[in-house]
Design goal:
Length: 175
Amino acid sequence: MTPVRVNRRGMLLAAGTGATVTGLAYLWQEKYVGDDLQGSPLAVDLTELAVGKLLALDWQDKPVWILRRSPTALAGLEAHEARLTDPRSEKSVQPATCRNRHRSIKPEIFVAVGLCTHLGCVPQLWGSDGFTCPCHASHYDLAGRVFKAGPAPANLVIPAYHFESETRLVLGSSA
């Protein structure tokens, strides 16, 4: 078996590539998402959104999810907090009105940008327990909070939004 020789240039390139990928993920979150993610308001009718159903739509060239959570799903959010990276969402990008356990204005309606905070892949609904990124196995609960076991560094981003009425949500503007 021939030993693999790694020169200094190869080591620097490998180290630089890893740092670049990590740095780009953080820059993407700060530059393209920002702290309040506002702009181009979009009204969404929630009349047909049944409990347990996920509405996926495109807003500002990003996938945005709106999920109507069941009372059982909401009750389950507390059970796994010890396994989360940021259970209280203290380091997460979200409006101040969503800084709570359920990360939403109304507990039953969850709104998030559907991009993994690791490398920007689109996670998928993971049964009735949360979301999973098929590319690198990051897992998020039904409040978009990331589990420690995966590579994603932060919770899913919550965009600015408000409720115009009981059945009408407006993305891109705060109340």
